[in-house]
Amino acid sequence: MDTLNIDKLQKLWALAERGSGGEADNARRMAAAMVEAQGYVLDDIPGLLADAGLGDGAPQPGAGGFTFYNMDNPAHARAYWRQHEARKRKWKRDNAGRIAEVIARYGSEEAVFAPTANEKALDEAIEPFRDPEKDGDATSFDGSTYLPTPRMVDAMGAAVPWPDTIPAALAEHAVWEALWSDRNTADGNEQGEYLSHGGDFRRSHLAAMAEKLIPARDLSDVIIRLRFQLDSQGLYDDPQAVLADLERLQAAGLGQAPASNADSASNGPEGVQVPNEQTAPPPPPTASERSRRVREFLSTMDGWDTPDRHIAKRFSVSPSTVGNIRRKMRPRAHDGMRP
Length: 339
Known about the structure:
This protein is mostly helical. It folds into two domains: 6-94, no CATH class; 116-253 and 287-334, no CATH class. It has helices spanning 6-18, 21-36, 45-51, 74-94, 96-106, 109-113, 117-126, 150-159, 166-186, 197-213, 219-231, 239-251, 287-298, 308-315, 319-334. Helix 13 crosses helix 15 and helix 14 (308-315) crosses helix 15.
């Protein structure tokens, strides 16, 4: 990793290998402490030194470290997975308290990942729609890998009834998100697909219901829907649904404002505001623009392996938003690419 002093490690390891007595033991302890701070273990040291560039065929990392785009190079692949496992060990060490809390809440690590009753029911409901397996492709159902088809929606609704209000859809969506988050924490922040196929399709459709599919009953529902879209920072963004809600409620006589002449008293003739002569600063990027930039970055060779928190800071979004975008991209662009 970037903070690992390879030169110092080489010297310590040479002393550990060729020294004698207490001198060799002390060098080995110091070398172990160096790499363990970065998540590596003692057995990784020979490989780390080889990865440092000894020989013309040694793999060279990009700006974001070793990526799965270089898996055709066996040495590069070994270096990538060594780095990947080190990151995971370090994350688990730094977040030991969070991991212990999750496991204690479920009763055991096995229980965290055990399929829930709803996952079992939903998996059974969509099983008749499973498509034949194809090498290198994500598992699909009824031709879909992310959003359920109408037939799948009906089947899932027969197994577990769908909510019929926006708040209820969001409440269930939050349960699925929490389950994914707990499993991700217990697994060392692998950012994997921790829900069953039925659970993942269910979560996706619940988000679509909250974003646009369920009609708002009143202005409170409209606000909830809009807040959900804004909080997603571009992941769920359908202003047309909000406009349709408002137009329907207005047609029903709700939300009408009394006429007022206050707005016509302005700086210019016939209520026209006089523009500010100073040049206004450019507006900050919208939520949709920030999400678009995140998606573009995740599509690059080095971007996919950059930690969520670094991407979030770079593009002024939340880490959870990056994680959601990553999960949404994975079935289309990345499923099946990792060994």
